[in-house]
What we know:
Elements: E1 2-6, H1 20-34, E2 40-48, H2 50-61, E3 69-74, E4 80-88, H3 89-98, H4 103-118, H5 126-142
Amino acid sequence: MLHFLIEEGASNVPQLLQKRAWYNKYYNACNKILGAKAPRITVTVILTGDEQIKKLNARYRKLSRTTDVLSFYYGEDGMTGEGEVFISVPVALKQARRFEHSLEKEIARLVVHGIFHVYGYDHIKTEERRHMRALENAALALVP
């Protein structure tokens, strides 16, 4: 199951990005890619601003700066529980401009990236990064 929130710091969010159904497509795509291995984790996607994401980054990662996405898993076995994906809309907008694509495409990429982090995937090591990127690309390809 997926939930969706827009916090005060996330301003000028386009209509499309204000609909839970849009996020659900990407959540379902991640689960489809993993098939039977997909965890049964309820994920909440939270669009936020730079101030909030900077506070979270400082508190949980000890980095006093903004970032594009932060993911948190609340559970014990990695297969059930809840997770949160915080996305900084201002950072996503900057990245969309830098990569010359739409805000929607950038947010989609960050949602998928965040969900796979909630599911326990990481990209610290080169092989992990390749695997996670392949999963992300496959999930994104499923959504027209």
